[in-house]
């Protein structure tokens, strides 16, 4: 596919957090997602090691049986509920992530890059277990910058200096630098937030 034929995503604010326009277009469905009490949510900022943790969790859940863990690609085993591609992308499997996650048998393990205040309310209401993955912000910024450069469907990163400025000032995807009291309270009081 030639680079000129790919349209880069744009950033749109959803509740004060910049997300891609494709995620914003699906916001009502995403925020209405129904979690179940035995769901496990893996949450991390992009390029923080989410896929590593997904593989580790899947391996633990299957008693270290590598054959069971090789049953399907990770994005089928652990759906990424807030990843949406442009409608022009012919791959239907990416467009049906929420429906596939909803149809999965319990217990489900689900992935998100959403900040705590954007996580669908049902995860909090159902007291789901949550694993938060963090990474050194310097490493994270460098990795995410290069991911934007490589993935032509991501928003235009600009120069390294521009990307870093946006990253540090809360103008990049999934970033909101001002922590709210509500966010801190959710993280501290949720019984299963690891």
UniProtKB/TrEMBL annotation:
Classification via Gene3D superfamilies: P-loop containing nucleotide triphosphate hydrolases
Keyword annotations of the record: Transferase
> What taxonomic ancestry is recorded?
Eukaryota, Metazoa, Chordata, Craniata, Vertebrata
| Sequence ranges assigned to domain Sulfotransferase in this UniProt record | 37-174
Name the family: Belongs to the sulfotransferase 1 family.
Transferase: is it a keyword of this entry? yes
Which region is the signal sequence? Answer: none
Q: Does Oxidoreductase count among this protein's keywords?
A: no
Give the enzyme class: transferase
The EC code for this enzyme is: 2.8.2.-
What name does UniProt use for this protein?
Answer: Sulfotransferase
Species this protein is from: Phrynosoma platyrhinos (Desert horned lizard)
